[in-house]
Amino acid sequence: MPEWQDEGIILSNRPYGELHSVASILTKTHGRHAGLVQAGQSRKRLSALQPGCVVGLEWRARLEGQLGTFKVELSKNYSALLIDTPMRLSALSSLCSLLEITLPEREPQEKLWDASKALLDILSLSENENEWLSFFIKWELGLLRELGFALKLQCCGVTGSTNELAYVSPKTGSAISKSAAGVYADRLLVLPMCLGGHTKTKEEFTAGMKITGHFLKKHIFNTINRKLPTPRIRLANMVESLNL
Fold this sequence. Notes:
alpha+beta
């Protein structure tokens, strides 16, 4: 009988029958994994099964390929910690939705686990929006990289120079310097300083989220005929309304 113990981040918890539920969890060493939670819709269990909760867990099944069952024990409820900060709560929901939709099942994702756990800590501990927003955008870049769609932001994709990087090509994902952009600048995405650009813009984080959002849609969501998750769209709108 296959079984293992791990820790994980709850991504979703959906009803199964009248009382049980099926939880999808990003585990530290077993990747995104689903399992049945007995009485998962009960009041006692629900507090540990909210998206963004970090849990200790045990998985068992009769055969390796089966859904199996989870036993979970709550370690930290980040949703509860962020309940009074709508934008941070939306970032948590975005993280969970993006991981749930984009990650293949049962493939180890230790780098994403570490980055996602660190992002949850920063969301709950950071005292200013600039710090966690910058980290969130870089987390999305990391998600793209781990899925095989790394952007090339270290040097200009036209000249190879590292000077005056100011834009990103929406086609290639390469940085473009100010001089190389020329008359095509208005067709390019603005590269903010938080992603290695050399000019700080007023819409620093809006520009960053436009870049990651564009390539998430281009490489992942368009290919499965889906829109970006609603929490991610909501977060982008919140960021755009900020005057940072």
